[in-house]
What we know:
The structure holds two protein chains of two kinds. By secondary structure, chain A is an alpha+beta fold. Chain A has 14 helices and eleven strands. The relative contact order of chain B is 0.23. Chain B starts with a strand and ends with a strand. At the A-B interface, strand 5 and helix 10 of A face strand 2 and helix 3 of B.
Amino acid sequence: xxVKLLNYLNLRGIGWRIAALVVASIFAIHLIFAASFxxxxxxxxxxxxxxxxxxxxxxxxxxxxxxxxxxxGLFTSLARAFPQLDIASLPSGSAYAANESSTFMPRxxxxxxxxxxRVFPLAPDGDTHRVGIVLPDGTxxxxxxxxxxxxxxxxxxxxxxxxxxVISVTLLGLWAARALTAPLLxxxxxxxxxxxxxxxxxxxxxxxxEIRSVAKALNRMRERITALIDDRTKMLAAISHDLRxxxxxxxxxxxxxxxxxxxxxxxxxxxxxxxxxxxxxSFLRNEHRIESMTLVDVATSxxxxxxxxxxxxxxxxxxxxxxxxxxxxxxxxxxxxxxxVDNAVxxxxxxxxxxxxxxxxxxxxxxxxxxxxxxxxxQFVLEPFVRGDDARNMxxxxxxxxxxxxxSNIVKAHGGELSLRDRQPxxxxxxxxxxxxxxxxxxxx
Amino acid sequence: xxxxxxxxxxxxxxAMTSAEFDLLRTFCERPGRVLSRDSLLDLTQxxxxxxxxxxxxxLVSRIRRKIEPDPQDATMIKTVRSGGYMFxxxxxxxxxxxxxxxxxx
Lengths: 445, 105
């Protein structure tokens, strides 16, 4: 509603909005003060507010004006008419000096009487407080202090108004600060969570003009970045794909090399190039293509990976249940696990694939007894094109360092998470936690 | 493109190598007959020759682990002493459109 009003008034900038807010709140405070002043005007003081003090002041003035001879009669009449004040005359000088030093000075009567009269408290008699009043001619009166129970502090209209104003201004200020900073916070969050998979919705373009233009600029920048990366990705994919043909041709031409050792080494190099290109293509494909989920016996998938590596002469073992049904993307999962085991057999001598299956979540651990990865590097190796150990791997590089990031992407696409742990006494455990979702039946197989 | 896959009675895909699948299909095509290791090699060698350097026994044990209710006490692919293996279950062929829970080629 306020935003609509601000829009209606064409106050689009932050500055204008703050100014409007300040003006509105000041206006509101003035309104409140004026209202409270009108409601509690001094000239409309009624019995509840003066507590009989005006009465007492009037009577004291009356006594003062009477000649001394007529006073006793007046006191009797006053005692009858105003018993609650209990006005009496005191012998002059009594108790006056004794109480001179008392710091307690009841407010009210002296305020009403003016400076000609002196008011001082008398020693309290039980619950009632009495005051002594010295008339200008020296006569001392004593009177019961009318209604000592002043209204509590927070009932005072002025205090109420002040507190209300303070609270409302504070709330208004907080609201304004929140309204202005909320879009900025959402910008920060959007910039943090920016990713290229296009799943994050563009920033809402609303709010004050400055905020809106920032949102627009950020959205445009995001589109540009996405387009740029898309172009690069396509180019990389095209290059990788096209390079496979000449590599295949070179493999054929290798057959004509007569020197056996040269031919073998050439084949090895070409195979390495091929596998590097394959991993790049697999990485790029994984970003764009999504295999459909289906019910899979995950245990057999892991056994399959184990068997494949055993067939290649590696020491790989599977520990886990014989069967475990879950909804996954079978080919993706197979590729991810294969990448992990591939790393494991490259750095270690013995690899263990462990499956821990529960109705909601399954954990697949790939353990090796290799050198492991230092804590400092653990966070980097999941990034694409980062190898576990750059220096050592350069010579025998068989990949671009995409294996772990492909596996990590696959796991993330399943809604799971991949983490790295140290294995005791040595080695690395790559741990995958995946949701099971065995209830979902496959679409028509 | 994947032209073959094995699903268990619950409908979940069972992962297999093509060599394992070829051997299983060979069994399914000749149910109730004792097949020697040599004849099994001959029948499956048509495809993926390289994968058959290891013995038929390894493949059979891998298939058993995936399809037998109890791999230690095999009931579907039985070992026939000094003869070979025999596939015991009833096999029925289905039209390609309507898959059953065992296998499709």
